[in-house]
Design goal:
The complex is a heterodimer of chains A (about 300) and B (about 260). Chain A has about 300 residues and is an all-alpha fold. In chain A, about 75% of the residues lie in helices and about 0% in strands. Chain B has about 260 residues and is an alpha/beta fold. Chain B contains 8 helices and 9 strands. Chain B has a 6-stranded mixed sheet with strand order 5-6-7-3-8-9, with helices on both faces. In chain B, helix 3 packs parallel to helix 5. Classes of the chains: A mainly alpha (about 300), B alpha/beta (about 260).
Chain lengths: ~300, ~260
Protein backbone atom coordinates (compact mmCIF):
# COMPACT_ATOMS: atom_id res chain seq x y z
CA UNK A 1 0.00 0.00 0.00
CA UNK A 2 2.96 2.31 0.61
CA UNK A 3 3.61 2.40 -3.13
CA UNK A 4 0.13 3.81 -3.86
CA UNK A 5 1.08 7.37 -2.93
CA UNK A 6 4.11 7.71 -5.26
CA UNK A 7 2.22 6.02 -8.10
CA UNK A 8 -0.71 8.41 -7.68
CA UNK A 9 1.67 11.37 -7.39
CA UNK A 10 3.32 10.57 -10.72
CA UNK A 11 -0.10 10.10 -12.31
CA UNK A 12 -1.26 13.45 -10.89
CA UNK A 13 1.83 15.21 -12.29
CA UNK A 14 1.27 13.72 -15.76
CA UNK A 15 -2.43 14.65 -15.81
CA UNK A 16 -1.58 18.12 -14.44
CA UNK A 17 1.01 18.77 -17.18
CA UNK A 18 -1.46 17.50 -19.74
CA UNK A 19 -4.15 19.96 -18.56
CA UNK A 20 -1.62 22.82 -18.61
CA UNK A 21 -0.54 21.95 -22.14
CA UNK A 22 -4.10 22.07 -23.44
CA UNK A 23 -4.29 25.89 -23.15
CA UNK A 24 -1.42 26.83 -25.49
CA UNK A 25 -2.14 23.92 -27.85
CA UNK A 26 -5.78 24.90 -28.37
CA UNK A 27 -5.71 28.72 -28.16
CA UNK A 28 -5.58 29.21 -31.94
CA UNK A 29 -8.51 26.90 -32.60
CA UNK A 30 -10.44 28.54 -29.76
CA UNK A 31 -9.83 32.03 -31.17
CA UNK A 32 -10.79 30.94 -34.71
CA UNK A 33 -14.04 29.58 -33.39
CA UNK A 34 -14.76 32.69 -31.32
CA UNK A 35 -14.08 34.90 -34.35
CA UNK A 36 -16.51 32.90 -36.47
CA UNK A 37 -19.05 33.30 -33.65
CA UNK A 38 -18.84 37.08 -34.08
CA UNK A 39 -16.66 37.87 -31.10
CA UNK A 40 -13.78 40.31 -31.28
CA UNK A 41 -10.37 38.82 -30.62
CA UNK A 42 -6.89 40.32 -30.94
CA UNK A 43 -5.39 40.20 -33.51
CA UNK A 44 -8.60 40.06 -35.43
CA UNK A 45 -7.86 37.85 -38.46
CA UNK A 46 -6.39 34.35 -38.55
CA UNK A 47 -3.73 35.61 -40.93
CA UNK A 48 -2.58 38.25 -38.47
CA UNK A 49 -2.62 35.68 -35.67
CA UNK A 50 -0.35 33.34 -37.58
CA UNK A 51 2.83 35.17 -36.65
CA UNK A 52 1.92 35.73 -33.00
CA UNK A 53 3.14 33.12 -30.50
CA UNK A 54 0.59 31.09 -28.56
CA UNK A 55 1.84 32.66 -25.33
CA UNK A 56 1.15 36.17 -26.61
CA UNK A 57 -2.30 35.09 -27.84
CA UNK A 58 -3.13 33.69 -24.42
CA UNK A 59 -2.03 36.92 -22.70
CA UNK A 60 -3.97 39.15 -25.08
CA UNK A 61 -7.15 37.04 -25.04
CA UNK A 62 -7.37 35.72 -21.47
CA UNK A 63 -11.14 35.29 -21.73
CA UNK A 64 -10.83 32.74 -24.51
CA UNK A 65 -8.33 30.41 -22.87
CA UNK A 66 -11.20 28.62 -21.15
CA UNK A 67 -12.84 27.86 -24.47
CA UNK A 68 -9.79 25.77 -25.45
CA UNK A 69 -10.86 23.20 -22.84
CA UNK A 70 -14.23 22.50 -24.44
CA UNK A 71 -13.61 22.26 -28.19
CA UNK A 72 -15.19 19.65 -30.44
CA UNK A 73 -12.04 19.19 -32.51
CA UNK A 74 -9.18 20.25 -30.27
CA UNK A 75 -5.52 20.03 -31.20
CA UNK A 76 -4.97 18.44 -27.79
CA UNK A 77 -8.05 17.10 -26.01
CA UNK A 78 -8.20 17.26 -22.23
CA UNK A 79 -7.80 14.04 -20.21
CA UNK A 80 -11.45 14.41 -19.32
CA UNK A 81 -12.52 14.52 -22.98
CA UNK A 82 -10.37 11.49 -23.80
CA UNK A 83 -11.76 9.65 -20.80
CA UNK A 84 -15.32 10.42 -21.86
CA UNK A 85 -14.66 9.31 -25.45
CA UNK A 86 -12.94 6.16 -24.21
CA UNK A 87 -15.93 5.31 -22.03
CA UNK A 88 -18.36 6.12 -24.83
CA UNK A 89 -16.59 3.66 -27.18
CA UNK A 90 -15.99 0.88 -24.64
CA UNK A 91 -17.96 0.60 -21.41
CA UNK A 92 -21.03 2.49 -22.56
CA UNK A 93 -21.29 0.41 -25.73
CA UNK A 94 -20.73 -2.79 -23.80
CA UNK A 95 -23.59 -1.84 -21.45
CA UNK A 96 -25.85 -1.44 -24.46
CA UNK A 97 -24.71 -4.82 -25.75
CA UNK A 98 -22.80 -3.33 -28.67
CA UNK A 99 -19.27 -4.30 -27.59
CA UNK A 100 -18.62 -5.92 -30.97
CA UNK A 101 -19.89 -3.04 -33.07
CA UNK A 102 -17.39 -1.63 -35.56
CA UNK A 103 -17.47 1.64 -33.63
CA UNK A 104 -16.45 0.02 -30.37
CA UNK A 105 -12.83 0.13 -29.22
CA UNK A 106 -13.39 -3.23 -27.56
CA UNK A 107 -13.85 -4.73 -31.01
CA UNK A 108 -10.78 -2.95 -32.41
CA UNK A 109 -8.67 -3.85 -29.37
CA UNK A 110 -9.68 -7.46 -29.80
CA UNK A 111 -8.56 -7.42 -33.46
CA UNK A 112 -5.22 -5.90 -32.46
CA UNK A 113 -4.86 -8.27 -29.52
CA UNK A 114 -5.32 -11.32 -31.74
CA UNK A 115 -2.57 -10.28 -34.14
CA UNK A 116 -0.38 -9.34 -31.20
CA UNK A 117 -0.88 -12.79 -29.73
CA UNK A 118 0.06 -14.63 -32.92
CA UNK A 119 2.97 -12.28 -33.55
CA UNK A 120 4.17 -12.73 -29.99
CA UNK A 121 3.92 -16.50 -30.27
CA UNK A 122 5.75 -16.58 -33.59
CA UNK A 123 8.39 -14.04 -32.51
CA UNK A 124 9.04 -15.74 -29.19
CA UNK A 125 9.38 -19.15 -30.84
CA UNK A 126 11.79 -17.78 -33.44
CA UNK A 127 13.72 -15.87 -30.77
CA UNK A 128 14.14 -18.92 -28.54
CA UNK A 129 15.07 -21.24 -31.42
CA UNK A 130 17.55 -18.67 -32.73
CA UNK A 131 19.09 -18.28 -29.29
CA UNK A 132 19.52 -22.05 -28.95
CA UNK A 133 21.19 -22.19 -32.37
CA UNK A 134 23.48 -19.28 -31.52
CA UNK A 135 24.51 -20.70 -28.15
CA UNK A 136 25.13 -24.21 -29.46
CA UNK A 137 26.80 -23.46 -32.75
CA UNK A 138 29.61 -21.04 -33.36
CA UNK A 139 28.73 -20.93 -37.04
CA UNK A 140 25.23 -19.63 -36.36
CA UNK A 141 26.62 -17.26 -33.74
CA UNK A 142 28.77 -15.68 -36.45
CA UNK A 143 26.19 -15.87 -39.24
CA UNK A 144 22.84 -15.30 -37.48
CA UNK A 145 23.62 -12.58 -34.95
CA UNK A 146 24.70 -9.85 -37.43
CA UNK A 147 21.48 -10.36 -39.42
CA UNK A 148 19.42 -10.20 -36.29
CA UNK A 149 20.99 -6.84 -35.44
CA UNK A 150 20.69 -5.52 -39.00
CA UNK A 151 17.03 -6.55 -39.09
CA UNK A 152 16.33 -4.14 -36.24
CA UNK A 153 17.93 -1.18 -37.97
CA UNK A 154 15.44 -1.30 -40.86
CA UNK A 155 12.48 0.98 -40.00
CA UNK A 156 9.42 -1.20 -39.56
CA UNK A 157 7.17 1.44 -41.18
CA UNK A 158 9.14 1.00 -44.39
CA UNK A 159 9.01 -2.76 -44.20
CA UNK A 160 5.36 -3.20 -43.22
CA UNK A 161 3.78 -2.39 -46.63
CA UNK A 162 6.28 -4.70 -48.36
CA UNK A 163 5.37 -7.56 -46.07
CA UNK A 164 1.69 -6.97 -46.89
CA UNK A 165 2.39 -6.90 -50.63
CA UNK A 166 4.61 -9.98 -50.50
CA UNK A 167 2.14 -12.02 -48.50
CA UNK A 168 -0.70 -11.15 -50.85
CA UNK A 169 1.55 -12.25 -53.74
CA UNK A 170 1.90 -15.56 -51.94
CA UNK A 171 -1.86 -15.84 -51.93
CA UNK A 172 -2.36 -15.14 -48.24
CA UNK A 173 -5.82 -13.63 -47.79
CA UNK A 174 -6.63 -11.03 -45.20
CA UNK A 175 -4.53 -8.88 -42.93
CA UNK A 176 -4.12 -11.30 -40.02
CA UNK A 177 -1.03 -13.16 -41.20
CA UNK A 178 1.05 -10.22 -42.48
CA UNK A 179 0.18 -8.25 -39.31
CA UNK A 180 1.38 -11.13 -37.16
CA UNK A 181 4.60 -11.33 -39.20
CA UNK A 182 5.28 -7.61 -38.73
CA UNK A 183 4.53 -7.99 -35.05
CA UNK A 184 6.84 -11.02 -34.77
CA UNK A 185 9.55 -9.10 -36.58
CA UNK A 186 9.70 -6.56 -33.77
CA UNK A 187 9.16 -9.06 -30.98
CA UNK A 188 11.70 -11.78 -31.72
CA UNK A 189 14.77 -9.60 -31.17
CA UNK A 190 14.53 -8.89 -27.42
CA UNK A 191 13.66 -12.55 -26.85
CA UNK A 192 16.66 -13.68 -28.91
CA UNK A 193 19.10 -11.39 -27.12
CA UNK A 194 17.69 -12.19 -23.68
CA UNK A 195 17.71 -15.94 -24.27
CA UNK A 196 21.27 -15.92 -25.62
CA UNK A 197 22.34 -14.20 -22.43
CA UNK A 198 20.22 -16.53 -20.31
CA UNK A 199 21.41 -19.75 -21.94
CA UNK A 200 24.98 -18.55 -21.50
CA UNK A 201 24.46 -17.55 -17.88
CA UNK A 202 25.64 -20.82 -16.22
CA UNK A 203 29.11 -20.41 -14.79
CA UNK A 204 32.15 -22.40 -15.91
CA UNK A 205 32.09 -24.62 -12.81
CA UNK A 206 28.37 -25.34 -13.19
CA UNK A 207 29.08 -26.66 -16.68
CA UNK A 208 32.17 -28.54 -15.44
CA UNK A 209 30.05 -30.22 -12.78
CA UNK A 210 27.82 -31.70 -15.48
CA UNK A 211 30.87 -32.80 -17.43
CA UNK A 212 32.08 -34.75 -14.39
CA UNK A 213 28.78 -36.65 -14.60
CA UNK A 214 29.39 -37.26 -18.34
CA UNK A 215 26.06 -35.52 -18.99
CA UNK A 216 24.90 -35.37 -22.62
CA UNK A 217 24.30 -32.11 -24.47
CA UNK A 218 20.55 -32.54 -24.17
CA UNK A 219 20.84 -33.11 -20.42
CA UNK A 220 23.01 -30.03 -20.02
CA UNK A 221 20.35 -28.06 -21.86
CA UNK A 222 17.33 -29.34 -19.98
CA UNK A 223 18.84 -29.52 -16.51
CA UNK A 224 21.06 -26.44 -16.50
CA UNK A 225 20.89 -23.99 -19.38
CA UNK A 226 17.12 -23.85 -19.79
CA UNK A 227 16.18 -23.41 -16.12
CA UNK A 228 19.04 -20.93 -15.65
CA UNK A 229 17.69 -18.82 -18.51
CA UNK A 230 14.16 -18.43 -17.07
CA UNK A 231 14.64 -15.06 -15.31
CA UNK A 232 16.18 -13.69 -18.53
CA UNK A 233 13.37 -15.14 -20.63
CA UNK A 234 10.64 -13.41 -18.67
CA UNK A 235 12.40 -10.06 -18.76
CA UNK A 236 12.64 -10.31 -22.55
CA UNK A 237 9.09 -11.60 -22.90
CA UNK A 238 7.82 -8.44 -21.22
CA UNK A 239 9.76 -6.26 -23.65
CA UNK A 240 8.75 -8.58 -26.49
CA UNK A 241 5.00 -8.41 -25.86
CA UNK A 242 5.08 -4.60 -25.84
CA UNK A 243 7.08 -4.68 -29.08
CA UNK A 244 4.59 -7.14 -30.59
CA UNK A 245 1.74 -4.76 -29.82
CA UNK A 246 3.61 -1.84 -31.39
CA UNK A 247 4.35 -4.05 -34.40
CA UNK A 248 0.69 -4.93 -34.85
CA UNK A 249 -0.41 -1.30 -34.64
CA UNK A 250 2.28 -0.30 -37.13
CA UNK A 251 1.08 -3.15 -39.34
CA UNK A 252 -2.43 -1.69 -39.25
CA UNK A 253 -1.33 1.88 -40.02
CA UNK A 254 -0.04 2.17 -43.59
CA UNK A 255 -1.85 -0.79 -45.01
CA UNK A 256 -5.41 0.34 -45.43
CA UNK A 257 -6.72 -1.88 -42.68
CA UNK A 258 -10.15 -0.91 -41.43
CA UNK A 259 -10.16 -2.65 -38.08
CA UNK A 260 -7.69 -2.62 -35.22
CA UNK A 261 -6.36 0.18 -33.04
CA UNK A 262 -3.85 1.21 -35.70
CA UNK A 263 -6.64 1.60 -38.24
CA UNK A 264 -8.59 3.73 -35.74
CA UNK A 265 -5.59 6.00 -35.33
CA UNK A 266 -5.21 6.36 -39.11
CA UNK A 267 -8.92 6.95 -39.68
CA UNK A 268 -9.01 9.50 -36.86
CA UNK A 269 -6.16 11.30 -38.57
CA UNK A 270 -7.84 11.28 -41.99
CA UNK A 271 -11.20 12.50 -40.69
CA UNK A 272 -9.70 15.06 -38.33
CA UNK A 273 -11.14 13.57 -35.16
CA UNK A 274 -8.35 13.87 -32.58
CA UNK A 275 -10.55 12.41 -29.87
CA UNK A 276 -10.67 9.11 -31.79
CA UNK A 277 -6.88 9.11 -32.17
CA UNK A 278 -6.27 9.83 -28.53
CA UNK A 279 -8.72 7.29 -27.21
CA UNK A 280 -7.20 4.63 -29.49
CA UNK A 281 -3.74 5.59 -28.22
CA UNK A 282 -4.82 5.34 -24.61
CA UNK A 283 -6.54 2.03 -25.34
CA UNK A 284 -3.26 0.72 -26.83
CA UNK A 285 -1.35 1.89 -23.75
CA UNK A 286 -3.84 0.19 -21.44
CA UNK A 287 -3.62 -2.99 -23.52
CA UNK A 288 0.21 -2.97 -23.30
CA UNK A 289 0.01 -2.39 -19.55
CA UNK A 290 -2.37 -5.32 -19.11
CA UNK A 291 -0.18 -7.65 -21.22
CA UNK A 292 3.02 -6.74 -19.35
CA UNK A 293 1.27 -7.09 -15.99
CA UNK A 294 -0.05 -10.51 -16.99
CA UNK A 295 3.45 -11.68 -17.95
CA UNK A 296 4.81 -10.27 -14.70
CA UNK A 297 2.26 -12.38 -12.85
CA UNK A 298 3.22 -15.52 -14.80
CA UNK A 299 6.87 -14.75 -14.04
CA UNK A 300 6.26 -14.46 -10.31
CA UNK A 301 4.28 -17.68 -10.18
CA UNK A 302 6.78 -19.62 -12.32
CA UNK A 303 9.89 -18.45 -10.50
CA UNK A 304 8.28 -19.02 -7.11
CA UNK A 305 7.34 -22.54 -8.12
CA UNK A 306 10.93 -23.04 -9.23
CA UNK A 307 12.04 -21.95 -5.77
CA UNK A 308 13.78 -18.84 -7.02
CA UNK A 309 13.10 -15.58 -5.27
CA UNK A 310 11.57 -13.37 -7.90
CA UNK B 1 45.61 -49.27 3.56
CA UNK B 2 45.80 -51.91 0.94
CA UNK B 3 48.33 -50.06 -1.17
CA UNK B 4 46.08 -50.35 -4.22
CA UNK B 5 46.85 -47.43 -6.52
CA UNK B 6 43.96 -45.09 -7.30
CA UNK B 7 45.84 -42.32 -9.08
CA UNK B 8 49.15 -42.71 -10.79
CA UNK B 9 50.96 -39.87 -12.56
CA UNK B 10 54.23 -40.42 -14.42
CA UNK B 11 56.11 -37.43 -15.77
CA UNK B 12 52.84 -35.57 -16.28
CA UNK B 13 53.11 -32.40 -18.39
CA UNK B 14 50.50 -29.83 -19.30
CA UNK B 15 51.23 -26.80 -21.43
CA UNK B 16 48.49 -24.25 -22.15
CA UNK B 17 48.88 -22.24 -25.34
CA UNK B 18 47.88 -18.68 -24.52
CA UNK B 19 48.14 -15.37 -26.36
CA UNK B 20 51.20 -14.56 -24.25
CA UNK B 21 52.92 -17.76 -25.32
CA UNK B 22 52.95 -21.24 -23.78
CA UNK B 23 52.30 -21.60 -20.04
CA UNK B 24 53.74 -24.61 -18.28
CA UNK B 25 50.92 -25.45 -15.88
CA UNK B 26 52.34 -28.83 -14.87
CA UNK B 27 55.86 -30.12 -15.38
CA UNK B 28 57.11 -33.62 -14.74
CA UNK B 29 54.60 -34.45 -12.02
CA UNK B 30 55.14 -37.91 -10.49
CA UNK B 31 52.70 -39.01 -7.85
CA UNK B 32 50.74 -42.02 -6.76
CA UNK B 33 47.73 -41.95 -4.50
CA UNK B 34 46.76 -45.14 -2.70
CA UNK B 35 43.27 -46.33 -1.87
CA UNK B 36 42.06 -44.75 1.35
CA UNK B 37 44.60 -41.92 1.31
CA UNK B 38 43.70 -38.37 2.24
CA UNK B 39 46.06 -36.33 0.07
CA UNK B 40 46.23 -32.54 0.28
CA UNK B 41 47.69 -30.37 -2.46
CA UNK B 42 49.04 -27.09 -1.18
CA UNK B 43 50.85 -24.25 -2.90
CA UNK B 44 50.47 -20.67 -4.09
CA UNK B 45 48.16 -19.66 -6.93
CA UNK B 46 49.35 -20.92 -10.31
CA UNK B 47 51.23 -23.92 -8.92
CA UNK B 48 48.97 -26.32 -10.79
CA UNK B 49 47.23 -27.98 -7.85
CA UNK B 50 43.77 -27.36 -9.26
CA UNK B 51 44.99 -28.20 -12.77
CA UNK B 52 46.25 -31.56 -11.51
CA UNK B 53 42.84 -32.28 -9.99
CA UNK B 54 41.14 -31.28 -13.24
CA UNK B 55 43.44 -33.65 -15.15
CA UNK B 56 42.40 -36.50 -12.86
CA UNK B 57 38.76 -35.55 -13.52
CA UNK B 58 39.42 -35.43 -17.30
CA UNK B 59 38.36 -31.77 -17.35
CA UNK B 60 41.83 -30.97 -18.70
CA UNK B 61 43.97 -33.17 -20.86
CA UNK B 62 47.71 -33.52 -20.21
CA UNK B 63 50.06 -32.76 -23.07
CA UNK B 64 52.64 -35.28 -21.98
CA UNK B 65 53.37 -38.14 -19.57
CA UNK B 66 51.00 -40.74 -18.21
CA UNK B 67 48.03 -40.50 -15.89
CA UNK B 68 45.77 -43.32 -14.78
CA UNK B 69 42.77 -43.37 -12.47
CA UNK B 70 41.79 -46.78 -11.10
CA UNK B 71 44.11 -48.23 -13.75
CA UNK B 72 42.15 -46.55 -16.57
CA UNK B 73 42.51 -43.36 -18.54
CA UNK B 74 40.85 -40.38 -16.81
CA UNK B 75 38.16 -40.26 -19.52
CA UNK B 76 37.31 -43.90 -19.04
CA UNK B 77 37.35 -43.51 -15.28
CA UNK B 78 34.89 -40.63 -15.54
CA UNK B 79 32.51 -42.72 -17.61
CA UNK B 80 32.76 -45.43 -14.93
CA UNK B 81 31.83 -42.79 -12.29
CA UNK B 82 35.15 -43.19 -10.53
CA UNK B 83 35.06 -39.85 -8.75
CA UNK B 84 32.88 -37.13 -7.27
CA UNK B 85 34.06 -33.56 -7.69
CA UNK B 86 33.46 -30.77 -5.17
CA UNK B 87 34.07 -27.26 -6.45
CA UNK B 88 35.06 -24.18 -4.50
CA UNK B 89 31.59 -22.70 -4.92
CA UNK B 90 28.88 -25.09 -3.75
CA UNK B 91 27.22 -24.55 -7.14
CA UNK B 92 23.81 -25.80 -6.04
CA UNK B 93 21.05 -25.03 -8.53
CA UNK B 94 18.84 -22.35 -7.00
CA UNK B 95 15.74 -23.81 -8.68
CA UNK B 96 16.19 -27.21 -7.05
CA UNK B 97 15.67 -28.18 -3.43
CA UNK B 98 18.64 -29.67 -1.58
CA UNK B 99 17.26 -33.18 -2.15
CA UNK B 100 16.75 -32.50 -5.85
CA UNK B 101 20.23 -31.02 -6.15
CA UNK B 102 21.63 -34.26 -4.77
CA UNK B 103 19.43 -36.15 -7.22
CA UNK B 104 20.95 -34.28 -10.17
CA UNK B 105 23.82 -36.74 -10.83
CA UNK B 106 21.48 -39.65 -10.09
CA UNK B 107 18.96 -38.45 -12.70
CA UNK B 108 21.71 -38.03 -15.26
CA UNK B 109 23.12 -41.45 -14.50
CA UNK B 110 19.69 -43.04 -14.75
CA UNK B 111 19.03 -44.34 -11.25
CA UNK B 112 15.45 -45.40 -10.50
CA UNK B 113 13.16 -43.06 -8.56
CA UNK B 114 13.12 -45.28 -5.48
CA UNK B 115 16.88 -45.63 -5.47
CA UNK B 116 17.30 -41.87 -5.87
CA UNK B 117 15.23 -41.21 -2.75
CA UNK B 118 17.06 -43.87 -0.80
CA UNK B 119 20.47 -42.48 -1.72
CA UNK B 120 19.47 -38.91 -0.98
CA UNK B 121 18.43 -39.90 2.52
CA UNK B 122 21.65 -41.80 3.04
CA UNK B 123 24.01 -39.01 2.01
CA UNK B 124 22.00 -36.30 3.77
CA UNK B 125 22.60 -38.30 6.92
CA UNK B 126 26.32 -38.59 6.13
CA UNK B 127 26.73 -34.82 6.00
CA UNK B 128 24.34 -34.12 8.92
CA UNK B 129 21.66 -32.45 6.83
CA UNK B 130 18.70 -34.69 7.68
CA UNK B 131 15.49 -32.73 7.47
CA UNK B 132 16.92 -30.12 5.07
CA UNK B 133 16.12 -32.01 1.86
CA UNK B 134 13.05 -29.88 1.15
CA UNK B 135 14.83 -26.55 1.61
CA UNK B 136 16.12 -24.39 -1.20
CA UNK B 137 19.82 -23.47 -1.27
CA UNK B 138 19.22 -19.82 -0.34
CA UNK B 139 17.60 -20.98 2.87
CA UNK B 140 20.88 -22.61 4.00
CA UNK B 141 24.12 -21.10 5.33
CA UNK B 142 27.29 -21.21 3.24
CA UNK B 143 28.69 -24.11 5.28
CA UNK B 144 25.50 -26.11 4.92
CA UNK B 145 25.45 -25.46 1.18
CA UNK B 146 28.98 -26.80 0.87
CA UNK B 147 27.99 -29.89 2.89
CA UNK B 148 25.09 -30.40 0.49
CA UNK B 149 27.50 -30.21 -2.44
CA UNK B 150 29.69 -32.86 -0.77
CA UNK B 151 26.57 -34.99 -0.35
CA UNK B 152 25.89 -34.55 -4.07
CA UNK B 153 29.41 -35.82 -4.85
CA UNK B 154 28.91 -38.81 -2.54
CA UNK B 155 25.49 -39.78 -3.89
CA UNK B 156 26.62 -42.11 -6.65
CA UNK B 157 29.16 -44.17 -4.72
CA UNK B 158 32.37 -42.95 -6.31
CA UNK B 159 35.32 -44.17 -4.26
CA UNK B 160 37.39 -41.12 -5.05
CA UNK B 161 36.49 -37.62 -3.89
CA UNK B 162 38.20 -34.69 -5.62
CA UNK B 163 37.81 -31.49 -3.62
CA UNK B 164 38.98 -28.15 -4.99
CA UNK B 165 39.26 -25.68 -2.09
CA UNK B 166 35.79 -26.62 -0.93
CA UNK B 167 35.98 -24.54 2.25
CA UNK B 168 38.02 -21.67 0.80
CA UNK B 169 35.17 -19.18 0.86
CA UNK B 170 34.02 -19.97 4.41
CA UNK B 171 35.04 -18.30 7.66
CA UNK B 172 37.52 -20.03 9.95
CA UNK B 173 35.08 -21.17 12.61
CA UNK B 174 32.80 -22.86 10.06
CA UNK B 175 35.85 -24.25 8.31
CA UNK B 176 37.17 -25.91 11.53
CA UNK B 177 33.81 -27.51 12.06
CA UNK B 178 33.62 -28.77 8.48
CA UNK B 179 37.19 -30.11 8.61
CA UNK B 180 36.27 -32.16 11.67
CA UNK B 181 33.16 -33.46 9.93
CA UNK B 182 35.08 -34.25 6.76
CA UNK B 183 37.60 -36.36 8.70
CA UNK B 184 34.78 -38.26 10.37
CA UNK B 185 33.13 -38.78 6.99
CA UNK B 186 36.37 -40.01 5.48
CA UNK B 187 36.87 -42.52 8.28
CA UNK B 188 33.32 -43.79 8.02
CA UNK B 189 33.23 -44.12 4.23
CA UNK B 190 36.85 -45.19 3.55
CA UNK B 191 36.94 -42.95 0.48
CA UNK B 192 40.13 -41.77 -1.16
CA UNK B 193 40.23 -37.97 -1.00
CA UNK B 194 42.29 -35.45 -2.97
CA UNK B 195 41.96 -32.04 -1.38
CA UNK B 196 43.29 -28.76 -2.78
CA UNK B 197 43.85 -25.99 -0.25
CA UNK B 198 45.66 -22.73 0.46
CA UNK B 199 45.74 -23.29 4.20
CA UNK B 200 48.69 -25.01 5.90
CA UNK B 201 46.82 -25.93 9.12
CA UNK B 202 43.94 -27.35 7.07
CA UNK B 203 46.31 -29.47 4.98
CA UNK B 204 48.20 -30.79 7.99
CA UNK B 205 45.10 -31.44 10.05
CA UNK B 206 43.28 -33.42 7.37
CA UNK B 207 45.88 -35.33 5.43
CA UNK B 208 47.72 -38.58 5.52
CA UNK B 209 49.95 -37.11 2.81
CA UNK B 210 50.70 -33.54 1.91
CA UNK B 211 51.87 -32.62 -1.59
CA UNK B 212 53.67 -29.26 -1.66
CA UNK B 213 53.69 -27.58 -5.05
CA UNK B 214 55.24 -24.45 -6.55
CA UNK B 215 54.53 -22.35 -9.64
CA UNK B 216 56.23 -21.47 -12.96
CA UNK B 217 56.39 -24.23 -13.96
CA UNK B 218 53.81 -26.00 -11.77
CA UNK B 219 55.61 -28.86 -10.06
CA UNK B 220 55.81 -30.93 -6.88
CA UNK B 221 58.53 -29.79 -4.47
CA UNK B 222 57.84 -32.03 -1.47
CA UNK B 223 55.64 -34.96 -0.47
CA UNK B 224 55.16 -35.38 3.27
CA UNK B 225 53.74 -38.53 4.85
CA UNK B 226 51.98 -37.43 8.02
CA UNK B 227 52.88 -39.31 11.22
CA UNK B 228 49.76 -38.00 12.95
CA UNK B 229 47.36 -40.66 14.27
CA UNK B 230 44.12 -41.36 12.46
CA UNK B 231 42.13 -40.00 15.41
CA UNK B 232 42.51 -36.25 15.30
CA UNK B 233 40.73 -33.94 17.68
CA UNK B 234 41.03 -30.25 16.76
CA UNK B 235 43.44 -29.80 19.69
CA UNK B 236 46.02 -31.86 17.85
CA UNK B 237 46.90 -28.64 16.08
CA UNK B 238 48.73 -27.47 19.23
CA UNK B 239 51.00 -30.55 19.55
CA UNK B 240 54.70 -30.40 18.63
CA UNK B 241 54.25 -33.08 15.93
CA UNK B 242 51.62 -31.02 14.20
CA UNK B 243 53.70 -27.84 14.34
CA UNK B 244 56.71 -29.73 13.02
CA UNK B 245 54.85 -30.88 9.90
CA UNK B 246 53.38 -27.42 9.42
CA UNK B 247 56.90 -26.05 9.60
CA UNK B 248 58.12 -28.47 6.96
CA UNK B 249 55.25 -27.51 4.64
CA UNK B 250 56.06 -23.83 5.13
CA UNK B 251 59.72 -24.49 4.34
CA UNK B 252 58.72 -26.39 1.21
CA UNK B 253 56.51 -23.55 0.06
CA UNK B 254 59.24 -21.00 0.68
CA UNK B 255 61.89 -23.05 -1.15
CA UNK B 256 59.73 -23.46 -4.23
CA UNK B 257 58.50 -19.92 -4.39
CA UNK B 258 60.66 -17.10 -5.65
CA UNK B 259 59.15 -13.84 -4.41
CA UNK B 260 59.75 -11.75 -7.46
Amino acid sequence: MRSVLPVLSVLAVIVGLWYLAVAPMNIRVALDQAERGGEVVTPETPLARQNVSVWALMIRNPDHVRAGYALDRPRLPTPQQVGRELWKTTGAMALRGRAWSKRSLIYHSWITLQSTFWGFLLGTTLGILGAVAIVYSRVSDLSLMPWAIISQTVPIVALAPMIIVLSSQLGIEGRGVPKAIISAYLCYFPVLVGMVKGLRSPRRDQLDLLRTYSASGAQTFSKLRLPASMPYLFTSLKIGVAAALVGTIVGELPTGAISGLGARILIGDQFGTPLAIWSALIAAAILAGVLVTLLDLVQRITLRRMGMQA
Amino acid sequence: MSGEKVIEANGLDLVFQTNDGPVHALKDVNLSVNKGDFVSFIGPSGCGKTTFLRCVAALEHPTGGGLSVNGMSPDEARRKRAYGYVFQAAGLYPWRTIANNIKLPLEIMGFSRAEQDERVNKVLQLVDLEGFGGKYPWQLSGGMQQRASIARALAFDADLLLMDEPFGALDEIVRDHLNEQLLALWKRTQKTICFVTHSIPEAVYLSTRIVVMSPRPGRITDVIDSPLPADRPLEIRDTPEFLQIAHRVREGLRAGHSYD
